[in-house]
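Hello again, I could really use a second opinion on something today. I've been puzzling over a protein and I'd love to understand its fold better. I'm sending you its amino acid sequence along with the backbone structure tokens. It would help a lot if you went through both lines with me. I've dropped the whole record in just underneath, so have a look.
***
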Amino acid sequence: MIVKSYTSLEEFAKEKDEWFAILGIEMTLGTNAISLYMQLDYDEYETYYIIPGNDGKLTVSEVVSWQDPYCYNDDINIFTEKSVDEEEILTSIHTAQ
């Protein structure tokens, strides 16, 4: 996985900024997370989040922001497929069972 070898959001953003730009993905470094915004179609997008994991390494949050078919912007947990609060972006970390 691309993020597992990193422990710093800043280091990841510095090293991967150009790579994401080439892919057409808008990367934004925030205080507690990195957002990866992808425009899929004229009115469709998805945003994924890179966050610090429980083991000190970076991981991908299981929360994705997207626009549903009714043009409603929503944050969903990709494992439960339920809407969640924005605060859960930083705390939703999937662990394999």
User: Anything to note?
Assistant: The beta strands are 26-29, 34-41, 44-52, 58-60, 63-67, 73-77. Residues 76 and 85 are 8 Å apart (CA to CA).
